[in-house]
Amino acid sequence: MAADFKTAQPLEYYRKFLEENIRPDGRDLLEFRKTILNVGSISTAEGSALVKLGNTTVVCGVKAEFAVPSQENPNHGYIVPNVDLPPLCSSRFRPGPPNEQAQVLSQFVADTISNCEPVNLKDLSILEGKLCWVLYVDVVCLSYDGNITDASLIAAIAALKNTQLHAVTINEESQTPEPSETRDISLTIRNHPVAATFGIFDDSVLFADPTDEEEGLLTGVVTIVVTDDEKIAAVHKPGGSPLPDHKFQECYKKAVTRGKEVRDLIQTACVDVDR
User: Is 134 helix (H, G, I), strand (E, B) or coil?
Assistant: First the structure.
């Protein structure tokens, strides 16, 4: 009977749970799903991370290549993020060019990394004006069950923290770069931006970390990115129901707590790999 009621009237099904301030999966309204992080599992990449946020799973690999720096910033390298939502992760996605959600998500991760500068781009310079590193940060969703935004940013930052580069010398005779045999140079991560996503249900009720099922019932979504010093780095709200100031403050406080949890998770995962 419960399954039939859920299928026939999903909104009413959720409202019955909300009367008790709980969700069908047993979580409190502002509770995030269990998050599991593993780093360094892709040996062919310079850095990698696997993130499980509930049943949402993403993997991120960082590949480093030589590039010519721009004329505007001759002593800077590049970081190029991309998020892929392939058909294998959910029936909602189809083969072909990146869909709109993947494009928006890729831009969100790129803007967050650009604005928060977790990596000093000067650290990616090899020979000023002539040679630098470009880091391709590729996030691929393996299983989609909502809130891909938070999972993708965790994976990207953790993979960057796990990244190790070759030392490079320039051959004086041929003027060609010669990388060392092993990767021994770790990236210095100056900031660990963390995204916390909240759904708006019935124009007023807040859900933290919405699942795929919940996303289909929401009247709005807001994502808050907080930095290590608890400042708001970005707010992403693509339309939908308005968010009153007191509700936004509630989201911000929860985002700060979530940020601390994720940073501890990243630190622990990276330390365990170094041992």
Answer: strand
